Amino acid sequence: MNKILNKKQINLLAPWIVPILLILIWQVLAQIGWISTRVLPAPIAVLKAGIHLASTGELYKHIYISTVRAMWGFIIGGLVGFGLGLLNGIFRWSELLLDTSIQMLRNIPHLAMIPLVILWFGIGDTGRVFLVAIGVLFPIYINTYLGIRTVDRGLLEMGKIYGLSFWELFWQILLPGALPSILVGVRFALGIMWLTLIVAETIAANSGIGYLAMNAREFMQTDVVVFAILLYALLGKLADAIARLLETKLLQWHPSYQF
Amino acid sequence: MASQLSILSNLSNEYMTMTYKGVDLKILELSKAFGDKKILQQLDLELAPGEFVAIVGRSGCGKSTLLRLIAGLETPTSGGVLIDGEPLGKLNQSARMMFQDERLLLWKRVLENVGLGQRGDWGPQALWALEQVGLADRAHDWIASLSGGQRQRVALARALVSQPRLLLLDEPLGALDALTRIEMQRLIEDIWQKQQFTTLLITHDVEEAVTLADRVVLLEAGGVELDLPVPLPRPRQRGDAMFAALVERILERVLNSKNVSRKQTANQQYIYSNN
Hints:
Chain A is mainly alpha-helical. Chain A contains ten helices and no strands. Chain A is flat and about 75 Å long.
């Protein structure tokens, strides 16, 4: 078989060998009864549960709702973090005024605020979006701020000598120079986005993937629970792939992204 | 395509034949201090339009500060700079500067780097500048794909594109290898002779100063210690006896000014020619 595959194909397939092997072992162990299906259902059972959920259309509804929540949280938190990062990165007075407060807030685990968030917003979607936004805000803020700060001051001086205005300096030097760091922030934030949503949806929700998992737990449907968890993994991987695509598109000039 | 190219080359010829004279630069009793630290003290220096002056001196003698003052990046503590008889305002509009690090924007292609800060239809003019430095064929490449010498040539094109009347060179060739450096020196001399801008070159390399400059100025403790004309015909030959004598004389002055003993001179000379 190896003779048919070229090096490129091997590179493409190699990362999947370990997961597939694990699933096979899992299936075998479940079938011979070493693992109780109450503890962990066989992969085939998980797959069947997924197919069942998809056939009733329930699955798409939950994925859609979760995605909308995640997106809103990401957009709101991302914009606020990006704006604050720019402001504090560019203006000394703003940094002096705001950075210490932001750093203090950053050190509060945002999931610890769940009781407070329920008190503030009730158990509706607003609270969940708020939590995601808070989670996303800080990685984007820090990486934007850092990115702006680490742009070579020599380039800015050069820009001034070459007659660039403030906005030209911003669009042509500061922002593109900070972009690699900002995109690192985006990738971090995407991870935190899903993490926050899982937790937020397991508490007092009536829709979404987290709800799907919690609801299944009530009825001891371990297969659905495992399926929901795998769904998160898949969606997380998808978000990461989009972020990577963004990096290769926007950072064409960067030596690390050239072939 | 062919007609487009001919239009471009016509334009290039137009730019090439266009002559514009360099500025008349006068530095009067210029002093600069950072806190208690006096960098420049009552410095006087004059550059005639189109003159090429090289400034040499030890590290920390105030060379870079002088250049930054002329560029308008710093404000003098006292005294001032006159450009064509006019006192220098905030930023020196007639001046362009080249740095030791090329300071190119990695996220812009070569041509866009050259056209930085240009208004209107700058494309043809940027291409003209790239032609001057022999890099017109790399116009659409990323900076990351260029070698160190090529990057410095792009930086030179960027300085030339607005047809500056004063070119300030802050050790622009310091980081290049010996061969590329000689190539760049020839290029700068060639373009300077064509464009006739006033040029102020800061360098650690006395040979480079004598190769390029009409006058070599030695800066010492914030003032002009030596102002020596270089009466050699261009292009100058490094093997020439007069050339060697002049280099020797300037080096001697640079080294003796700090009371360096004769025995150390040979070593120091080695360091200087490698810096």
